[in-house]
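Page 47, continued from p. 46.
Same chain as before, 158 aa.
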Amino acid sequence: MAEIDSEHTLTVDRILAAHAGRLGPLLPVLHDVQNQLGWIPSEAIAQIALGLNLSRADVHGVVSFYHHFRTHPVGRHIVQVCRAEACQAWNCQATEAHAQKRLGVDYGGTSADGCFTLEAAYCLGNCAAGPSVMVDGKLYGRVTPQRLDTVLDDWSKR
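Result:
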């Protein structure tokens, strides 16, 4: 398990200071931590709890409730495969099976080279052009296994 370093501790302190005095800052703090660190380490959960005068259980409960929050380091690029009903109608199962095989991981895993983390998404808002895949916020529609290879090849060079 990766540990938080002193630079990460300072980042979390800066985020907490930026949200000081605001009502209900937990979700914005968690989003900022993940956006800046790429994930929310367990040490950061304790630091956030202390900084917001909450219990670690309260903070952990929010982090574990929302699938968006990550509690482990991720690859350089996040690949999300839509698994919502519309994409299922467009056979997203073939695309997701190919993604898992190509990257050598299941959902939540990171490829051995550290390039990609694979995540399931439950609607990327591109229902008419399914199956849909998003890589680092860039949306792709009508993603067949062959098109996924092209997309991943392009992103692996970045």
